[in-house]
């Protein structure tokens, strides 16, 4: 409603007569001075107004305000005493304006102000005692300005400050003097700057610092981590920097660290002592680096580790006992490496596993899944083995997993068919549900099959249930796939026409599940090969070279009732 060009005022009086809010948009200076009953106002929001300049004493009439926002209004200049009188103000936001310099803007302390938001302005420098009139500040937001310079003692007097946001600025280095005196600082956001260098005593007085964000900077060394001020750090984000290696014992002073994000760096090796000292670490992320080697024992000190992400690296092998001491592990993410083998004892010590992600590797054998610790709860376990090179695996051990992704592997067609005649639970995923088509008039080309390899050719399998359709007489052929290329036998049923254009360079096999009822005693299978390349040579639109072979299939799971 207040967005209508004509109606600029919206007064919202809440039920309590003492609490009232006013929101104004698209206003100007004159309109603000016309506001009446200002003694009732506790919250004033001015947005998208035209207020380039605020003069001295502008807000004196609003001395009951607790909450003041002046945003998106082109504000570029505040007189030195323009905030005078706001003695009860707790929250002040001047974000999204054009402020280029920062002063105290008040002749006396704004003793109630705890939260100041100056984000998205044009500040380029913080000068001495900029904040001296805001002694109670707990949160200071200077995000997305152009700050490249912080003078000594800029934050002087902010002894209650807990959260400081300086992300999205142009800081190139952190000096020892920047954060001096911020004794209660608990979180500091410095991400998305251009920080190359951090002086050794930068955080010396910030002994309460729990969370430090340094991601998206240009750091290549982590020497600064060993200073006393960072001993109680819990969250550390170093993602998207230029780290190439982790020096031995570089984290040895950060024994309270729980979260460490090293993703998107240039780390190439994980050495034995690189992570030592991280006794409390629960989440480690080294994804998107160039790690091609993890040495024995490199994770040994991480006894509290719950989650490990080393995806998107260049690993080919892993030490057999890599996780030997990480007995609390719940999530292991090793996706998108070049890992060829997971040793079967590797995950034997993990009793709490819930998530194993190995997609996008070169694994050809999943026997390690049979050797998981007996106490792992398989009903809550999620395993992703998609995009590997598995040819076959022992499905019976996987049927009770919460979810297993087996899409996009190098399945042998024979293994696939033999196993998938059984009804698999939905938790076993081969890229698409293994739906049985039981309506022959359905457009079978709209059904995508499951890919497999047979005789060096990529194929796709579709399963058809023709139990409802009259059977052609079948001689009991001997389980041999026999088809005559030169003289294909005619299709036994009225087949749907298959425009094979969609199956580039691979063939389609259609497996026909003859009858679900017979499925448990012995199956009759028909399979058809449609070779697209041959068809193209013939230049025919219609499907002529259809090879049909009849295979009698032994049931892989015998129904006890029908067993004779
Ligand atoms: C402020 O806006 C009102 C209404 O839009 C207009 O009548 C008035 O002239 C404006 N004052 C200034 C100083 O621009
Ligand atoms: C004010 O302008 C900003 C950006 O121009 C826009 O995102 C926002 O929705 C506007 N707010 C109001 C209340 O008009
Ligand atoms: C803010 O400053 C920028 C650059 O100086 C200018 O382009 C823009 O028009 C100013 N915005 C307002 C609302 O004055
Ligand atoms: C800032 O402090 C540092 C160390 O305390 C000192 O060396 C430097 O001269 C000071 N800079 C200014 C401008 O006062
Ligand atoms: C670290 O920062 C990146 C952005 O630079 C973010 O995507 C990631 O979630 C952060 N990590 C943690 C653990 O918060
Ligand atoms: C990071 O490593 C990659 C591969 O080794 C290299 O191509 C790239 O130039 C490196 N980047 C930096 C900033 O060192
Ligand atoms: C690790 O970091 C990457 C990149 O920031 C992110 O995509 C991924 O989700 C993180 N892993 C975990 C387990 O949070
Ligand atoms: C498959 O797994 C089951 C259960 O884990 C086991 O009993 C069986 O011996 C395994 N079969 C093969 C061929 O390894
Ligand atoms: C897929 O399996 C076939 C044989 O079944 C083998 O010739 C081929 O090299 C395998 N491809 C990959 C990428 O492992
Ligand atoms: C089979 O599919 C066709 C076309 O999709 C549909 O018209 C017909 O009703 C279906 N028959 C049965 C028995 O589902
Ligand atoms: C079957 O699907 C193909 C490809 O989607 C389409 O071109 C064709 O018209 C469909 N045929 C029928 C009978 O729906
Ligand atoms: C089979 O498909 C894979 C992946 O799409 C491809 O890399 C490979 O070359 C194909 N092989 C043949 C024989 O077409």
From TrEMBL:
Write the protein's name: Uncharacterized protein, isoform B
* Presence of keyword Signal: yes
Q: Where are the transmembrane segments?
A: 508-526
Matching entries from Pfam families are given as: LRR_8
The record's listing under SMART domains reads:
LRR_SD22 (SM00365), LRR_TYP (SM00369)
InterPro entries to which the protein is assigned, alphabetical = Dev_Immune_Receptor (IPR050328), Leu-rich_rpt (IPR001611), Leu-rich_rpt_typical-subtyp (IPR003591), LRR_dom_sf (IPR032675)
Identify the PANTHER family for this entry. Answer: SLIT RELATED LEUCINE-RICH REPEAT NEURONAL PROTEIN, TIR DOMAIN-CONTAINING PROTEIN
Query: Which UniProt keyword terms apply here?
Result: Leucine-rich repeat, Membrane, Repeat, Signal, Transmembrane, Transmembrane helix
Show the GO cellular component annotation of the record.
extracellular space
Is Transmembrane included in the keywords of this UniProt record? yes
Q: Where is the signal peptide?
A: 1-21
